[in-house]
Q: What sequence folds into this?
């Protein structure tokens, strides 16, 4: 079945550091890929998405590129801020189902 | 435009008690979903409703029932709560089954 694997956290970075959170997936066909962010005590917010191979999703300085050859959708940001501290979820939506398949989440803490 | 709203935000139940979690969306979406979030496990789909008048089981439906009351509202009922149902519950909606899902703020449920 479809699945998403993302790097274990927590990840601790200093402000202005470069961020990469790895995400790889297993799926048949051509799924859509998402990054959601969950700030402390809040629900999930869509951060960015990509619906086909080689698409790049971007938002708020975050980027991720849909790489079908490596089945990956790594999240990157060039310079993180304290306000980016949150849990980040990679998710997959296959063409054949309704559910989003989520990774387990990666907790990011950015220190001043 | 409130998006997806959920009530209550917090609830404590005793084993065996029943309750209903409410969800409403004002985005004219056709599909609605209930997920649960447990530590280290990401989100898992409990039930979904592809369109008004239909409901289907997700990955973890045991112990739950749902009602799609109308296009806007989708409720989740626990008939006899168990400690294993302690979790954070998220409602989501999308225009259709292939579209981006938008999440509510969540309900944190504790079953003693």
A:
């Amino acid at each position: 079945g479809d699945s998403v694997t993302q790097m274990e956290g927590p990840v601790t970075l200093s402000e202005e550091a470069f961020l990469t959170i790895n995400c790889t997936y297993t799926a048949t066909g051509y799924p859509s890929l998402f990054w959601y962010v969950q700030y402390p005590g809040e629900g999930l917010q869509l951060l960015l998405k990509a619906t086909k191979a080689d698409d790049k999703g971007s938002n708020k300085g975050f980027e991720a590129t849909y790489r079908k050859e490596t089945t990956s959708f790594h999240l990157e940001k060039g310079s993180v801020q304290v306000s980016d501290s949150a849990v980040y979820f990679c998710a997959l939506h296959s063409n054949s189902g309704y559910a989003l398949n989520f990774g387990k989440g990666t907790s990011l803490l950015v220190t001043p | 435009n409130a998006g997806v709203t959920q009530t209550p935000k917090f609830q404590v139940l005793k084993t065996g008690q029943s309750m209903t979690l409410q969800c409403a969306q004002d985005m004219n979406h056709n599909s609605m979903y209930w997920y649960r979030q447990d530590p280290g496990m990401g989100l898992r789909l409990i039930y979904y409703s592809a369109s008004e008048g239909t409901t289907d089981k997700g990955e973890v439906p045991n112990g739950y029932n749902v009602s799609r009351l109308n296009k806007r509202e989708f409720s989740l009922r626990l008939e006899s709560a168990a400690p294993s149902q302690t979790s954070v519950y998220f409602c989501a909606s999308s225009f259709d089954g292939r579209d981006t899902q938008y999440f509510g703020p969540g309900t944190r449920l504790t079953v003693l």
The first strand of chain B starts at residue 4 and ends at 7. The two ends of chain B are 36 Å apart (CA to CA). The interface with chain A takes residues 31, 33, 35, 40-45, 48, 50, 56, 58-59, 90, 92, 97-98, 100-106 of chain B (CB under 8 Å).
